[in-house]
Amino acid sequence: MSSSRRSTIIVEHLRKQQMWDSISKGKRLDGRTLDEIRPIEIEVGLIRKANGSARVKLGNSEVVAGVKVETGEPFEGLENKGALILSAEVLPTASPYIEPGPPDEETVELARVVDRGIRESEMLDLSKLALIPGEIVYVIFVDCSVINADGNLFDATSYAAVSALMNSKLPVFEIRDRKAVDTGEKQNPPLTTVPVSITAVRIGESLILDPTAEEEACMDARITITTNSDQNFAAVQKGSTGAFTVEQLKRAAATARIKGEEIRAKLRESTKAGK
Amino acid sequence: MTQTRSLIDENGKRTDGRTGDQLREIKITVGVIKNADGSAFIEFGMNKIVVGVYGPREVHPKHMALPDRCVLRCRYHMTPFSTDTRKNPAPSRREVEISKVMREALEPSLMLEDYPRAAIDVYVEVLQADGGSRCAGITAASVALADAGINMRDIVSACAAGKVDDRIVLDINDTEDKEGDADMPVAYMSHLEQVTLLQLDGVLNEDQFDQCLDEAVKGCKMVYEVQRKALMQKYFGNETELKEEQ
Amino acid sequence: MQEIRRKYVVPGDRIIEGNFRPLFNVIKAGNSIISTRIGIAEAGREGVKVIPLSGVYIPRVNDIVIGKIMHHSSLSWEVDINSCFSAHLPAQDVFGRDFSPARDDMGRELAIGDLITARIIAFDRTRDPMVTIQDKDLGKVPSGEFIKISATRVPRLIGKRGSMIQTIEQATHTRVLIGQNGIVVVTGRNSEGIKLAVRAIRMVEEEAHTPNLTQRVKTLLNVSDSAPADTSQLAPSQNAPQNEELQPTIQEVEEELGVEKGEKVHDSN
Predict the structure, then answer these.
(1) Which residue in A143, A163, A151 sits closest to A58, CA to CA?
(2) Type and span of the H or E element at C64
């Protein structure tokens, strides 16, 4: 069951006033234009015990993602494919409003939306990761931990998960006596595309990209759009309690393709993976 | 624990090349989590741990507040990718126990009676674990608490010593932890000269016990120097030497 | 007698040995006085203290704070004062003794998100702080640029007898409202002046512990060092220093805190 609640961050009326004035002039409180994305820092390979890892800072939002590879049973109905399991948690270090405990509806949504973007775009060719179809397949775990929350966790988490996958080296398993055995060799993951998530929020009649936590607290509605390397759409999610016009959504989608390409180049450069 | 191989070679070098009385490399950065009141990141060998402190702050639910002092809450938590095999995100019994001994290691240093009806939350997140993660966690947590400006009597430093190949060595690593004979983590307040955490896992005779404890305390003092330097660096920049005008 | 002017300390550091009086953010341990915070230690005839460089704002009675309305019950507003406790503003403080929830609309008077300048009138170990907005210059903050700084830097921002903040106000033609809790609001007619004032405030916040800060701020503001601050035309600044500055003398501190000789002061700020 999901219930309405008061926004956790209460924005000072002076700040809200400033924000509205500023946006009407095409600028935001931190000096960015409406479609400008904050500086992105990406560090890969920092967790050597993981098969792949990345730390992403999107402005002050910071997420660490790690990839761990095991073998196990395939998902029902997907017998010929490896299994991809993505989870996300917002650590209690991330903001004064988070309490430790099982994931709340926002965290569950975060994990599922990031997963959807990666899965639907078929970033990993999972058909190459089955060992004995129906019995034993590669199981790829991608776990994301939000360390500091300052808005737009959808994009920050997605960039961390995608970078971690692009950075990863998978073990090479082979079947001996109907059991999966690690040969000790390493292989590159079967990557097909680089999905990029772009989030915009509506404040008044303006659409702004990559909101800070303060801007999210003032937003009417939010839209997260993931595109793949062919600039096709793979996943979309509207969030928050307001609404968009159809025209605004089409505009957001067009922006997501263009900005997505810019971010894609950044992700590739940071992880030096192909395609 | 039965040993199947020698962990210290004929030149006295351990599996990672250290001698018996050498600490692994430690690096501490202060103030890494923008939203937190205090924070620190530590790299201790291959351990990578980030700690965020919030407090003093209001207690929720209100009935958990204490009338005459602050509530200290401590959580030691490992991310799923921090260990060799992926760890389930739900808290394990090991994490619950370590959270408790960590809180009890830090509490003696804090002047909790200064903040009645409030709470201080210490969140220790292990991004990568490598033997001695609880000691690294306590070390970073004490730095984060100082960064948060909480009144404290002293800084808590932690380090483990252990028995490997029948010898007492300082700061045991992951392999030595798994294959060695004994592991003794210790937390210590250097100025007050008091031990706030002591655990033993393994078998030691009386001499070895004394030696191990001494060795661990020596290690704690070395850890303290790194903590102090990190705090001075963050707050006073290049002026890390004591400034006095007499 | 031994004296220490500026010693950088972390918790647990021994500041001095001997029969000195502990003033604040220090404790006596045997024959030594030890710091309980990261900060700048000073020791002299009057005692030993540490001026902290980090820490959450702890409320004190009579402090002027800038708070944010978060919520209201039928009898009071809940105010976020950037501290470990939220404060209460009783409805009677605004509507008077014969306040009636049926007739008087609290939400219309002060809405969620509104900023108020308030004075702390009650706070002790057993209850949450209570504030009033009834005095002169208190009440809703109508406009201005909002900044949050660490409460530990407020004394340095105000300066000795208000000197630092007055320098900034005059050079930028702004009015700067400072709460002891680290909330600052800058008002002015000219947006360039406001931007410059904000930069100066941020510089003071970051470099509060360094010597020669006043000089660097003046350079930033393009103020000549020799010209004395001209306060004759201005109404007295609202920022009369209320609590200890970063570099006052111990005597000034004692006067402000009203400390009796021999009384130990345990001050968490």
Answers:
(1) A151
(2) strand C64-72
CATH value at residue A138: 3.30.230.70
Residue holding tokens 């006043």?
C214
CATH class held by domain C4-54+249-257: mainly beta
Query: For residue range B186-213, what is the model confidence (pLDDT) as tens digits?
Result: 999 999 999 999 999 999 999 999 999 9
Interchain proximity C143–A12, CB inside 8 Å: no
C36 touching B (Cβ < 8 Å)? yes
pLDDT at B239 (0 to 100): 59
On whether the CB atoms of residues A33 and B48 are closer than 8 A, the answer is no
Q: Which of B185, B188, B155, B190 is nearest to B170 (CA)?
A: B185
Q: What share of chain A is helix, strand, coil (3-state, %, to 5)?
A: 30, 35, 35
Q: Which class in CATH covers the domain with range C64-140?
A: mainly beta
| C114 φ/ψ sector (left φ>0, alpha ψ -120 to 50, else beta) | beta
How many A×B Cβ pairs under 8 Å? Answer: 92
Domain that holds residue B230: 26-236
Contact state of C145 with A14 under an 8 Å Cβ cutoff = yes
Residue C228: burial class (beta carbons within 10 Å; 0-12, 13-18, 19+)? exposed
- Residue A111 falls within a domain, yes or no? yes
ipTM of the complex: 0.93
In the numeric block, which tokens belong to residue B97?
């126990």
pTM of this structure: 0.92
* Contact yes or no for A70 and B86 at CB 8 A: yes
Residue A115's beta-bridge partner residues? none
Chain B residues close to C86, C-beta within 8 Å: 58
Whether B11 is covered by a domain: the verdict is no
**What letter represents residue C238's amino acid?**
Q
Q: Whose CA is closest to B221, among B155, B172, B162?
A: B155
Q: Which residues in chain A have Cβ-Cβ distances shorter than 8 Å to B50? A: 93, 147
Q: Which two tokens stand for residue B34?
A: 């923008």
State whether residue A246 sits within 8 Å of chain C by CB: no
Q: Is the peptide bond before B56 cis (omega within 30 degrees of 0)?
A: yes
Nearest to B125 among A70, A141, A145 (CB): A145
The token duo for B239 is 């002026």
Which stretches does DSSP call E strand in chain B?
A: 26-30, 38-44, 47-58, 71-78, 118-128, 156-164, 167-170, 182-189, 194-198, 201-202
* Under 8 Å between Cβ of C164 and C197: no
| Contact between chains at C144 and A14 (C-beta distance less than 8 A) | yes
Query: Using a CB-CB distance cutoff of 8 angstroms, which residues of chain B are in contact with residue C81?
Result: none
Nearest beta carbon to residue C6 from set B149, B228, B245: B245
Q: Can you spell out the DSSP letters for B134-179?
A: HHHHHHHHHHHHHHTT--BSS-EEEEEEEEETTEEEES--HHHHHH
Nearest to C89 by CA among C123, C136, C133, C124: C133
Q: What does each of the 275 residues of chain A score in pLDDT, given as a tens digit?
A: 888 776 679 999 999 999 999 999 999 999 999 999 999 999 999 999 999 999 999 999 999 999 999 999 999 999 999 999 999 999 999 999 988 888 899 999 999 999 999 999 999 999 999 999 999 999 999 999 999 999 999 999 999 999 999 999 999 999 999 999 999 999 999 999 999 999 999 999 999 999 999 999 999 999 999 999 999 999 999 999 899 999 999 999 999 999 999 999 999 999 875 33
Angle formed by the axes of helices A246-271 and A153-167, nearest 10°:
30
In chain C, what are the domain boundaries? Answer: 4-54+249-257, 64-140, 145-221
Distance CA A100, CA A109 (A): 17
